[in-house]
Amino acid sequence: MGRPVYLDCDTGIDDSLAIAYLMAHPDVDLVGVGTVFGNIDAHRAARNTLDLLALGGHGHVPVAIGAEKPLAGAWLGGPAHIHGGNGVGNVELPRGDREPLSDESAADLLVRLAHEHEGDLRVLAVGPLTNLARALDVETALPYLVESVVVMGGAARVPGNVTPVAEANIFNDPEAADRVLSAEWPLTLVPLDVTMEHMIEEADRESLLAADVPIPRALGQMLDVYYEFYVGTFGRRCAPLHDPLAAAITAGGATPLVAPTVQVVVDSTDGPGRGQTICDLRGERVGYPDQPTAHCRLVLSLDAPFGPHLVERLTSS
Amino acid sequence: MGRPVYLDCDTGIDDSLAIAYLMAHPDVDLVGVGTVFGNIDAHRAARNTLDLLALGGHGHVPVAIGAEKPLAGAWLGGPAHIHGGNGVGNVELPRGDREPLSDESAADLLVRLAHEHEGDLRVLAVGPLTNLARALDVETALPYLVESVVVMGGAARVPGNVTPVAEANIFNDPEAADRVLSAEWPLTLVPLDVTMEHMIEEADRESLLAADVPIPRALGQMLDVYYEFYVGTFGRRCAPLHDPLAAAITAGGATPLVAPTVQVVVDSTDGPGRGQTICDLRGERVGYPDQPTAHCRLVLSLDAPFGPHLVERLTSS
């Protein structure tokens, strides 16, 4: 039996890779999924999630719909040019036979699972942090109930992907991110600094398409749209592994190498830095001396290339 | 006859290195210096500057006192633990026999020199940008009168030195920096990204102390205090070459290697990003495609180590 994991996501192509990775990992017991606006709306994200879970033999995992907009302000819709009009690269997944929970929000599901698996639950958030912020309001003891929190988001020393300094998950709800990153739980932040360095390539996509099980084939199809978008960033068809990398760190399948525990503050002003994760890396040349009140581990590099591990995991299961 | 250079500075140990470099460079005609609060107050910065100029046989160069505080808010005093109580590492320089201009501010001096050397004047600013911002108010055509502007300041992909994201010159007057960086002149920004990579070491300090002319000896003495401060940053006695590097780029003695022309915006909010230079480096992986309205060249690396060149220039003249 694996370790209990709650996933919060906005499914999404790289979210789909993360879900597939979690289903394929023997040490993971995916006990619930909450969805949030971001790559796509939260309702569609739940449908995508249920369909992926069914396709991967995990139809039993409960899926709850969460926030459709940030704590403050409006959501302007998902980036169809990145994730396709349906969030999963315009691929038509076979419809699973389950529906989202009708009586429980994502925040409520997270709180319930934190109590049911007290001290053991690993929380993995790969979308805007609105559901986690709400869960902290519902259950103020949440930071002390969960085992750990891993968040894909932010950019420390590299450019953002929405503004020059802001990454999409944080930018989509800076007020929620501020709340989640300042809560007193052991949090690992997986920013663009590391996710942009671990890639999936065209040859990998061909391996996925050639697999004789449905999930990798569906992922290989989805990646077509995603790769097209990233030609503008990388100059070739490929994609960075944002969400699956955070999933692998949660599962223990990827090991951070440089990962200092430092002060991280979210810029929630309305200025040009809105949505930036401001990380205090001033001690970088002397081994990051202790910052006594810091509780955010910032992953800046891994001990091994992640792409090959991901593809092997997805195609061998 | 060298090229006319106006220097705006807050002298300052590394400002002193910059002044010495400019005096020693055959292609530079230092036609005026304005001073500003920052490393020390503007009055003391003028005294330090006059004494250095006299010691280096440049007593004829006019020095004008500029702003003693930023455009908005107050100045809290200079960092005596970095530059010493007098700005020049507590070294007592022989008093030069000139005084600052009594009838002209730094901003007025800059505007006058820009007219006198129309199309030729190189402006080098190595302190807070208050005087340059005021000069832009006095003479709105200033951006079209000068040959170029080089500013030491900001941090693009590396930590700040006052906050996790803000460098001191910009942080000391973000409103002025915003005005100067958005004016339509050809501006080269020399941020911590490059200045923190070019060092002066203990052996270099010994070379300066062993010189048989007074300026390098005085610089070698000043560096004692400066080196002590930087032990906390680098783990050894040494110093990064902030201001002299900007001086060398102005003089043509250092050549930028990676130096894209990109959008740069100064965060002048009261949030955690105040004083940050937000640089749009999102095109870094595909050779920085044109950003049509950008006019700020951001120096990220040089084509050669600068420390040895600086020390040779200072000790051979």
Automatic annotation (TrEMBL), chains A, B:
<protein>
    <submittedName>
        <fullName>Nucleoside hydrolase</fullName>
    </submittedName>
</protein>
<dbReference type="InterPro" id="IPR023186">
    <property type="entry name" value="IUNH"/>
</dbReference>
<dbReference type="InterPro" id="IPR001910">
    <property type="entry name" value="Inosine/uridine_hydrolase_dom"/>
</dbReference>
<keyword id="KW-0378">Hydrolase</keyword>
<dbReference type="GO" id="GO:0016787">
    <property type="term" value="F:hydrolase activity"/>
</dbReference>
<dbReference type="InterPro" id="IPR036452">
    <property type="entry name" value="Ribo_hydro-like"/>
</dbReference>
<feature type="domain" description="Inosine/uridine-preferring nucleoside hydrolase">
    <location>
        <begin position="5"/>
        <end position="304"/>
    </location>
</feature>
<keyword id="KW-0326">Glycosidase</keyword>
<dbReference type="Pfam" id="PF01156">
    <property type="entry name" value="IU_nuc_hydro"/>
</dbReference>
